Amino acid sequence: MEREPAPPLTGTALTARNLVKRFGDLTAVDDVSFQIRPGETYGLLGPNGAGKTTIISMVAGLFPPDSGSVDVTDIRMGPSSLGAKRHIGLVPQELAIYPDLTAEENLNFFGRLQGLRRKDLKSRVALVLDLLGLGERAREQTKKYSGGMKRRLNIGVGLLHRPLLLILDEPTVGVDPQSRNSILEAVAQLSTEGTAVLYTTHYMEEAERLCDRIAILDQGKVQAEGTRDELITLTGGVDRINLIGTGRMVAAAESLRTVPGVQQVSGGGLSGLTLTVTDGPALLASIITNAATAGMAVTSVELTRPDLESVFLHLTGKALRD
Ligand SMILES: Nc1ncnc2c1ncn2[C@@H]1O[C@H](COP(=O)(O)OP(=O)(O)OP(=O)(O)O)[C@@H](O)[C@H]1O
Predict the structure, then answer these.
(1) The pTM is what?
(2) Is the beta carbon of 41 within 6 A of some atom in ligand 1?
(3) Which intervals hold domain ABC transporter (predicted)?
(4) Which residues of the chain register pLDDT less than 50?
(5) Ligand 1 near 49 CB (within 6 A)
């Protein structure tokens, strides 16, 4: 099927300036600023509770920031600014589709709500079904769909009106591998067509694969921002070692912190210990011996070159998935 021509890749799709949001004593979002250009996929990478959903809610105009501003292209977002909102496709974590309707009927229904005209609607529905790999099962009731297919359809609803900016809130959490792949491919395709994408995730691999630029978020603050390669240079090129095992994990962690070349040790639960070290291959043997002496029975060891997980650990002292 023919795709529509891409809009020009110029200007700025989104500008978020100095966003602050407090809930009582908690500053959930603390002076967050970023810009997204057309065709760019921008990632907010951070653990649960980092403030991702709160940021995108303000960007989409669901509630106003306590201070700061959001501009979609050059239109200021406010509670009633339909002008800014119509350029946004927001796909929340929760599903908003009708189980008794087919995928096609759902899309037709939501498309009409969004004001699409009949002829345009027909081609948009076909295009969205094709993009998300749902064409073959478009005429089945969605209650027969897998969780991942429902999630794909939910994304489709957010895309019908050709938003300049698509906002996806952790779109792959809990979905099957096939749907996950389909979602990632659809986002990559949209980006080549000029759609700006704001993508929140706590999966480092997705941020690395999809996002042109990434903000690493923790406790409401942007800890660092840049391309994957720019962020990786922040670690100073340190390696990461994961030790899985049983026994005296806390004692092992304490002991490993004293080994020369070990910069940080985190974890200690079922997921094992995560270490950042200056020269992994050279230190590996002494680390395993040290952990064993401290009472940890090491069952598996993994050495990884720097990645965004290491950047997060380096910046916050915590593992992304603690
Ligand atoms: N309406 C609210 N009232 C009070 N606190 C809130 C509210 N919404 C969010 N929070 C708190 O603000 C912080 C940021 O939450 P937010 O949902 O934005 O994080 P997140 O990075 O999206 O994580 P998750 O993936 O778990 O949703 C958390 O500590 C959360 O408990």
Answers:
(1) 0.80
(2) no
(3) 14-244
(4) 1-9
(5) yes
